[in-house]
Amino acid sequence: MHMVNDPPHIGESPANRFYRTIWRWHFYAGLFVIPFMLVLATTGIIYLFKPQLDAVMYHRQMFVQPSGGIAAYTQQLEAAQRVYPDAAISKFTPSVAANRSGEVELVTSDNQTLTVFVNPYTTQVLGERNEDNNLQANARRLHSELMIGPVGDYLIELAACWGLVLLGTGLYLWIPRNGFSLWGTLLPRLGSQSQRVFWRDLHTVPGFYSMLLIGFLILTGLPWTGFLGETFAQVWNRFPAQMWDDFPQSTVLTGALNRNGIQSVPWAVEQFPMPQSDLLDEHPYQPLMDKTPASKAVEGNTPVTPINLDFVIALAQSQGAPPGFNVSWPDGEKGVYTISAFPDDPTQEVTMHIDQYSGKVLADVRWRDYGLVPKAVELGIAVHMGKYFGLENQLLMLAACLAVILLCVSGGVMWWKRRPVRRIGAPTIPSYAPQWKLPIGIIAVLGVVFPLVGFSLVAVLLLDYLVLSRIPVLQRIFN
């Protein structure tokens, strides 16, 4: 990810013109990308260590002393409801270990999302975590949308895609033009007396070694973006029709459960249609249900008693859902309970939709049902988030984030030191460019794979060629 490199020898050969064009692309890409990449890297580091940060910041709420038997899950839920009587329950996560509290996610009357921690042995409410306003939540929102909603999401996506352009052009600029030399190519000359050589090597050499890791971070983050990610999911997150032929469908997709940046279901099932509960269906599990909720009368039929949280969790455990699974609440009379688990190992992911009256499993989607591309995406996300192989995974992604910060800082310093007074100091555009077949080909490929990059690249090139290079005042500023 090189901001600038040593200029080529002046000349108008096709090779030199192409080199100068790539160098100019790299320069402008760097000016645009650096602020976003610094935000992504710093917030990524914070969210990467969310498990450790949560354990420190909310230790009193998250950890309990085991004592006797665990109370019924409905009792834990009722304890949270007594403290927040006007809030709407949205999700429940049973304790993942004997020394951990249960977690009730709810939405308050003023539209705040809270996680309420309940001691599973005593049903004591231990405290709350505001999911809209804490260190990790703010880092997540900055990381995904710059805290400004969809516009920020698109800007992050555009910057990430331009980051790939920066890597590709940087690799081209890294290739030695005047013969291979170990120092300055594979080893940095950090002891050089020349500040320019020092910063250049501090930029180019780490950039070469970290290129694949940074590229991996960018690519595995793109499935969560608003434009490319949504389009990608619609194309690849497909399931055989017979998986939902036997239940009534709603127009709502499972991905609707991922609200406000909080992940409740895996990426691979976001396009799976939500089923609907059937008030008129037979209810074979009625003897197991809690009789305390109000029954729902159906014209011409006996009253229907909904299943309760204890039943849903017992069902999830009997179906092999791994510890850490959550239960999302039905939305309305036709809504369903959704059991979802996305543990560190994505091959153990589970998404089940449960009829809220009969307790029937309407859909059960697991790793075996994913296509090849969703499997690759889920594995990539697990590594991207530092979950897949423990602390080593976190440290590897930390190294990638630190490399991004180093490249941004060193590239910015290089530009600042060499910029002319009152000018941006971009590499000069070639005096004429008859050899445009390869650049146009690159733009076409980028436009197909990354539409936002393709459109923006065409806009930048037209602006550069038709405006910046032709108006004398702008020429002086931008060159």
Write a brief structural summary.
The chain is built from 14 helices and ten strands. With 479 residues, the protein is an alpha+beta fold. Helix 1 runs antiparallel to helix 5 (135-145) and helix 7 (195-221) crosses helix 11 (390-418).
Structural class: alpha+beta
First-to-last CA distance? 21 Å
Question: Uncertain spans, ≥5 residues at pLDDT below 50?
Answer: 3-11, 284-294
SSE topology string = HHHHEEEEHHHHEEHEEEEHHHHH
Q: Helix proportion of residues, in percent?
A: 40-55%
| SS elements, strand count | 10
Number of helical elements: 14
**Sequence of strands across the biggest β-sheet:** 4-3-2-1-7-8-9-10
| Shape call | elongated
**What's the overall average pLDDT, rounded?**
84
Portion in strands? 5-15%
The figure for the number of domains is 3
Overall radius of gyration: 27 Å
Report on the biggest sheet.
Answer: 8 strands, antiparallel
Search tags:
two-stranded antiparallel ribbon, eight-stranded antiparallel sheet, disordered N terminus, 479 residues, single chain, alpha+beta, OB fold (Dihydrolipoamide Acetyltransferase, E2P)
